[in-house]
């Protein structure tokens, strides 16, 4: 079943929303634009990219993008999560300067590629409910398609996986985040899991430079979900002699994949 061509919009709810009453037309217009973008995302109701990406998407300058993000968070219009607490503080300082409330202009250049996640609570909640029902029906169809009493056969390994010399074996007692977990987790959870996985790889001596690699990947605007995806693969991978090269090769592909899936788009 394809995605519906439109979503329900309730003008009464829009005008009664306390947060929207407190902000000016620039913020309300930007938020309306974001809702259209979020409708086309997967998952719906959620978008995430770096500050520069928001400015490019909304076709505005970075200072105004900071102002809009700060207003959305301060007035609780949306759920706004930052990958970096210092970035959160600077965005609000930049917003104050943009409004003329502060004479000092903070240096935001080093944070322009730090990710910010923005979620519309109702749209995301509705998407989760529909996705749950879709998966439930899919599992039921698969169950009905299997003859009673006959266990399902595992699919044969693909030629690419069977020919691969890479064996996978998790570290003892460790289960890294799965693909579904990575795709559905909040940006705050992704940040926590990146740190935990980095600590695990460092303590196990599997990748002594893992913290340096992860920080460099994030500073180079690689998608945070792809960073965690790569680290999770490294946890279960065996006989990796050059972990930096291994991670670097995968991140170039996976970061683009996550962008294409709609987990935040960058121009």
Topology:
Blueprint: H1 11-16, H2 18-21, H3 25-39, E1 46-50, H4 51-58, H5 62-74, E2 79-82, H6 85-98, E3 115-119, H7 121-145, H8 159-163, H9 179-184, H10 187-203, H11 210-219, H12 224-236, H13 243-260
Antiparallel strand pairs: 1-3, 2-3
**Taking Cα atoms only, what radius of gyration do you get, to the nearest Å?**
21 Å
Number of strand elements: 3
* Unreliable sequence segments: 158-170, 263-267
N to C succession of SSEs: HHHEHHEHEHHHHHHH
The strands making up the biggest β-sheet line up spatially as 1-3-2
Distance separating the two termini: 30 Å
From the helix content, strand content and strand pairing, which structural class follows?
mainly alpha
Instruction: Give the count of structural domains.
Output: 2
Mean pLDDT across every amino acid position: 81
Helical percentage: 55-70%
Strand content: 5-15%
What is the general shape?
flat
Can you count the helices? Answer: 13
Q: What does the largest sheet look like?
A: 3 strands, antiparallel
């Amino acid at each position: 079943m394809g995605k519906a061509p439109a979503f329900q919009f309730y003008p009464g709810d829009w005008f009664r929303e306390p947060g929207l009453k407190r902000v000016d037309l620039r913020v309300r217009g930007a938020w309306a634009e974001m809702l259209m973008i979020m409708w086309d995302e997967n998952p719906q109701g959620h978008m995430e990219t770096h500050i520069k990406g928001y400015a490019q998407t909304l076709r505005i300058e970075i200072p105004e993008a900071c102002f809009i993000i700060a207003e959305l968070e301060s007035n609780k219009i949306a759920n706004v999560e930052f990958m970096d607490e210092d970035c959160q503080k600077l965005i609000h300082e930049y917003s104050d300067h943009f409004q003329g409330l502060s004479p000092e202009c903070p240096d935001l250049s080093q944070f322009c590629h730090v990710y910010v996640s923005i979620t519309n609570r109702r749209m995301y909640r509705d998407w989760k409910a529909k996705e749950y029902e879709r998966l439930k029906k899919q599992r039921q169809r698969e169950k009905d398609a299997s003859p009673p009493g006959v266990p399902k056969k595992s699919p044969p390994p693909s030629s690419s996986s069977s020919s691969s010399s890479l064996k996978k074996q998790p570290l003892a007692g460790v289960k890294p985040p799965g693909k579904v977990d990575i795709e559905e987790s909040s940006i705050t959870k992704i940040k926590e899991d990146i740190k935990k996985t980095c600590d695990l790889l460092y303590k196990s001596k599997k990748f002594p430079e893992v913290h340096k690699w992860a920080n460099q990947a994030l500073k180079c605007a690689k998608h945070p979900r792809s960073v965690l995806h790569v680290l999770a693969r490294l946890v279960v991978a065996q006989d990796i002699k050059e972990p930096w090269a291994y991670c670097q090769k995968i991140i170039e592909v996976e970061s683009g994949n996550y962008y294409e899936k709609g987990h935040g788009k960058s121009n």
